[in-house]
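Before drawing any conclusions, I looked closely at one protein, both as residues and as discrete backbone shape codes, quoted below without any editing:
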Amino acid sequence: MTADEFSDIFITQDAGEARLVLELLKSGGIDAVLFDAFASGSVAGFGPAIPARIAVPEGQKEAALEMLAAMRGTPGTEKEEQTGGEPSR
């Protein structure tokens, strides 16, 4: 695997959500790239058919996934590690 290879880490049908996640990752020093945010494909009656994808370099994948987990408040977040238990809701 070369340093130029990227992996998809986030896929959504909501282009706004994709841009928000992209900016979060970039603000944390991750070299994230947004793909297909402006694709116009849709299926009549079902909405968007082409999801927006965010990809990061392989070397930053683990850090990016940790940032997403912290953003979502899923197990393994910094707050849980600091308190030693479930994050408060």
Notes: Confidence is low (pLDDT under 50) at residues 77-83. The first helix runs from residue 15 to 27. The longest strand covers residues 6-12.
